């Protein structure tokens, strides 16, 4: 009975559960794993006569455009930096907002404010960039009109690189707050009332309740969001950066990430090999990251690990 | 007003329905055929079998098996495409025992889709090519079938119709991969400006750099709320080159900061980093300081032509070719009758013009085609057979268009109710000068073309197909450096121009500028040799 | 009771204040978009955006509704795809999430990894495109709009987490002792108790389907099968192509398009209906807490 049994034994014992998860596994096998043969493109110089396996093998040549002018290090640092800030600030703010919202009593207020905070999620970055230009441009922008009327000197925001990490972070949080807040809100809903009852009997005040019950219960949700964010730490938010910054080279030093660089470099001569190579770099980076972090989490508390 | 519009729309729709009911008949009437096609299946098949013999003889290809051709064009499909397709198929079935399916990529991510279509191996028989779709690069990488042996066999009429020098001009590595269009057009830019303001303030016509600056200055002084220039990003830079040099290209630029003059094409020098470059950049800086440009032109999302058309700016350097200017004039006439637009084409300043190169519009047969012969035979019909040509360019006569004053095209209804507007299938490549119909308002553009014809020299630049395989990585890196360090200089955003240019050149060299320039020059000289251009 | 404690009251006041500020920040740009959609295009380009339109015009909406039949068709495609995709996807995701959090399912970790791994590595667009078109022949079918979007690793793992935290382990065990099979437990316990989580995941899935344009762009040739977002997005792209690319090509559009106001009108037309979905989902976020609040 206590002896470990083989796969077939498991299959038979849990056949219903296997059946329940089978469509999902099949889905990922076909939709995600099968096309992975395409990773091989990263090592070939594509030609149409040869296709995937008939094109000449070129080793690591396709990675050269990333390392060519020594830009890769800067891109990596920028991408990492932004994503770390996004993860920390984004989660802190949405946890905060979810807790505040869960403590508010007015039903209509609660519903209305929640809906409104979801609105930015629907605004595409194309539109956001149009509105941003309208606010920030040096000739007639809203911000500068305001500064002028208050007696300050106007600022040419699009020519002031140090402002942009703050602006981009602000836009990121603004746009995603509603979405990530819902996740935490749903987690808070899942917390059993019994905990709060018990706390009340013990005479805990509102801060203690939040600190000792709500926040610890959000830990597992946070870890999931964290792990998913870490896996794609070299990717992401292309539209945010590309639409807001566009081709304004003045800002590149502080705003260029791997995705925008790849897009700009390959826009004219889109090359399957080079695009795949760049993606592979991002994947491997994320993979190493995630394996490390998951390992650490598993050491501390197996329950929270992703796999 | 709005109600009326809506009503018109409904009427349009019902008309459309009725027309489609009758379409079968009119199609047959046109082909001079009896009703055999619309009757039952069996006789049709029999008749086809009989016809095969004659068809075979006419085209020299085997048409015994019925096939469906896959035809791909860029852009959006016209609303009535299905109707036109059915009409075409009636004829094609009879002539070639083939039907065609017209597919469109839309303009969303068209370049990515174009690549996918060609690399996925799905059967495609005809696809649009142009220098801006990277025809040469695709051809070099083996995406298309060589047509040299196919054309004489499958499309002899087409072969004769396209002049020999056009066939020569589209060759890549000595082989023909596309069927070029032969209609001659000019797509060079010019300065579009507000003639009414120019007259009002008695400013000179902007016909050279000097007079342009006077014009801009006058606008700045007299219309303080107006932007002198509508250009965004860096579109003005190439225009200044067109204005001040006899550069070999008609649009865009010679890449990688190289300078090649039309009269001495073998002298390839670097424009980037030259004293002239510094001088130009200093001028842009002074323009920025004088307020000729808007400040954040790298970030604005409105297009330059929109800004110009909205009356926010008084001139635009970088996006008005004769076609577009003609369009703008028509638009302005209806929206702002009190305005007047002026136009100074760059060829007048350069002293010569160049029509588009034959590769500018063409159709190729992709490697994945299952029926290359039939595809070419069909394309021959589209180009040389007036019935096919008119149907696919202008739609159905009497429904989509009619002929005015014996020679002009007139659209029926408006752009909304008409399901097939002029060149609704983006048929730039199968325009046939003999059959072409123009809108009356287009006469102005044709007149401009005539002017340019007078000073025309052959286009020697556009036919050159660069092979960047050996410096792909450098090219990608350089592109980034250019945007990061040169764009701000181009827009006068950098105070110390000299230091800025030095920094740019340093970074560009690090990215591999020298290697790229050397490789490009080598290929260019070889191209000149191969084509006997002195 | 603790409502009367000063600290709680101050806290709630602060909560109201902060949330109000957040909400205003989120609302303001949206008001600009609404106003922009009602402004004449020329005025947007000349004067920029204002909360009250400087020159009122409906031309943006006229452009969006230029072919009403096509627009309605695109709406119905999107609604169909969203409903079917969300229902089927939710069914599969909840099942997978449920199985993966069962402690007595031995392979839960390797299988979680199997699913998660696909977020890290991908073969890129080309092989995937070839597979769906050439091998499965899914081009120009509704299936291609629905199938590839049914599940994402993120939603599965999120679901697993929601179920885990909403339903105590003991409940499964006692149900098993009562003789319920694994599917029955899922059906009668999980689907009832994990509602806030299911609603959240369902909302996210529905939003993904609603916002999707990429599938239409890649796989659909037939205008009558376009999703709403693509139908509209494509109009913008056509305008952009003509303004950016066309100078060297000699292409003109032959009609005047109010670019900016159209963009804004599209955002309104697209966002409008889905916002009405949110309150339905919201029930699950508010109800539980009200009970808690009353008790507390």
From TrEMBL, chain B:
It comes from the Bacteria. The keyword Signal applies. Residues 461-528 form the DUF3502 domain. Residues 1-23 form the signal peptide. PROSITE patterns: PROKAR_LIPOPROTEIN. Keywords: Signal. PANTHER family: ARABINOSE-BINDING PROTEIN-RELATED, DIACETYLCHITOBIOSE BINDING PROTEIN DASA. This is ABC transporter substrate-binding protein. It comes from Paenibacillus etheri.
